[in-house]
């Protein structure tokens, strides 16, 4: 099936434009109370309240994301993909522990399922809506017990729409699964929320001459009867949306860091004029990660790299250990700044993941600020100069200040204010605490919460504890008030120049380009 540029463009617009975020936000019909009561009465005794796993984890931004009643520890995915037809066949084995007695539970998934087994026994299964796979085991599961769930499935992911769009994008020679806040439901069943992180083994068979790129370390590769199988492993907890798959024809470079970490970078063989700039940027990943260890502490994972497939979208994504980069990010030449941004997420967003999607500042504010620190290091504008310039760009009546980075709402979750106002808050905090305490915070936070989840309120409490200062009012001003701080100098940024407009730092254009990259979700 040829790749339809028109259909891809429509999908990209739905994902990139903030005014289309409702496609992935309002994911459940609101049921009138009377109808809800009648439905409740119709539920059989075996599925009584307290034994059915919830169809969501309770995230107010994405009510249907994730599921209740169990905690996943490991995903084992055995896949076969044919690029020419977009047919994906798979068997997913999910290891979990129940957190309540379960007569029924859900997985988030969009493809057609042929069989489900729970603890080796056939289980009932039915699709409820576009993405809820309801599973009824042969017998209720006791609380606190280890459970294995095997799901066999097949389908064409690009033809599956959930809330009007797809996270699976076909390319001229394959396909890519990389998207935020959701991408898993198009290619494997899961508990699809960052609160339930797990380890992964991902084994993918593709036609000879084609590669399959995923997270972590490549454990093995073998060919048989015209198919090549790639076996990837992620040994540290990983959120579902950070799990990626790219199938296509790539030029792959491998190396090791000075600390012995394997580095795998992959480039589509058809990147056109952007190929050189993409390589000149992504090949510096090891250098960037080494510098980031000075800022954030030890690198948290056992692999490193990045990949750039031949896609028409314009965003980049911090997929764990192996970020995804659209070739468009390199249309104006090398862009190491976006590499800094995505690799900073390995600490802030990947190792320490958000508790709820309202906590997105923990991801994006810190990743943006890492770009400002890189600019400072490279002599292209200090973080303070970038803060001054950012502040001056937005007058008091600018809608920019109406977005609260600490809880921006789903429609503004990936808007520029979360990134830039979020970074302004960090520069203000640096000025408030001084460099010694501030940089101790930047290192201490990912160490304290490594491989777990944390919220904005957790960070506020941590900053107060480490600094010994009351900071609630400070964070309220910068993260939660929908107004521009009245006194820039007192709030942590310098007063404006006499012209009323600070000079634009040399790094500004590259950093600002990342806004359009990340406003897709």
TrEMBL record:
For biological process, the GO terms are: proteolysis
Top-level EC class = hydrolase
One of the Pfam families matching this protein, by short name: Peptidase_M1_N
Region (Disordered) spans which residues? Answer: 498-521
Keyword Calcium among UniProt keywords: no
Cleavable signal peptide: 1-47
What's the family? Answer: Belongs to the peptidase M1 family.
Q: Which protein, by its recorded name, is this?
A: Aminopeptidase N
């Amino acid at each position: 099936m040829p790749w339809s540029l028109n259909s891809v463009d429509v999908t990209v617009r739905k994902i990139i434009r903030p005014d289309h975020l409702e496609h992935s936000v309002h994911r459940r019909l609101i049921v009138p109370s009377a109808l809800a009561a009648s439905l409740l009465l119709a539920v059989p005794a075996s599925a009584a309240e307290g034994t059915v796993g919830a169809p969501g984890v309770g995230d107010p931004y994405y009510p249907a994301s994730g599921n209740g009643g169990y905690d996943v520890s490991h995903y084992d995915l055995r896949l076969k993909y044919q690029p020419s037809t977009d047919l994906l066949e798979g068997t997913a084995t999910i290891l979990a522990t129940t957190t309540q007695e379960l007569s029924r539970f859900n997985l988030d998934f969009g493809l057609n399922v042929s069989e489900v087994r729970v603890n080796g026994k056939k289980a009932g299964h039915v699709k409820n809506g576009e993405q809820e796979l309801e599973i009824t085991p042969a017998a209720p599961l006791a609380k606190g017990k280890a459970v294995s769930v095997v799901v066999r499935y097949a389908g064409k992911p690009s033809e599956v729409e959930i809330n009007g769009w797809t996270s699976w994008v076909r390319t001229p020679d394959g396909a890519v699964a990389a998207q935020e806040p959701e991408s898993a439901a198009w290619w494997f069943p899961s508990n699809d929320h960052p609160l339930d992180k797990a380890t992964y083994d991902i084994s993918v068979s593709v036609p000879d001459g084609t590669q399959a790129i995923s997270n972590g370390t490549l454990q093995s590769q073998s060919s048989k009867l015209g198919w090549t199988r790639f076996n990837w492993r992620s040994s540290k907890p990983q959120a579902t949306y950070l799990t990626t798959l790219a199938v296509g024809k790539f030029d792959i470079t491998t190396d090791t860091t000075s600390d012995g970490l394997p580095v795998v970078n992959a480039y589509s063989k058809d990147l056109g004029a952007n190929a050189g700039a993409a390589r000149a940027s992504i090949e510096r990943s090891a250098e960037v990660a080494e510098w980031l260890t000075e800022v954030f502490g030890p690198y948290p994972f056992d692999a490193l790299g990045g990949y750039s497939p031949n896609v028409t979208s314009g965003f980049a994504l911090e997929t764990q250990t192996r970020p995804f980069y659209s070739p468009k990010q390199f249309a104006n030449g090398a862009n190491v700044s976006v590499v800094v941004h995505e690799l900073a997420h390995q600490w802030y967003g990947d190792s320490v993941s958000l508790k709820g999607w309202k906590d997105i500042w923990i991801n994006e504010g810190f990743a943006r600020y890492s770009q400002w620190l890189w600019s400072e290091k490279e002599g292209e504008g200090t973080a303070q100069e970038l803060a001054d310039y950012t502040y001056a760009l937005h007058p008091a009546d600018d809608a920019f200040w109406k977005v609260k980075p600490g809880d921006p709402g789903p429609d503004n979750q990936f808007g520029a204010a979360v990134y830039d106002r979020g970074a302004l808050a960090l520069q203000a905090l640096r000025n408030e605490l001084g460099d010694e305490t501030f940089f101790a915070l930047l290192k201490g936070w990912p160490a304290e919460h490594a491989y777990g989840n944390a919220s904005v309120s957790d960070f506020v409490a941590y900053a107060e504890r480490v600094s010994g200062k009351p900071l609630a009012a400070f964070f309220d001003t910068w993260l939660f008030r929908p107004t521009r701080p009245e006194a820039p100098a007192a709030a942590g940024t310098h007063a404006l120049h006499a012209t009323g407009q600070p000079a634009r730092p040399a790094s500004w254009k590259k950093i600002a380009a990342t806004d359009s990259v990340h406003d897709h979700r």
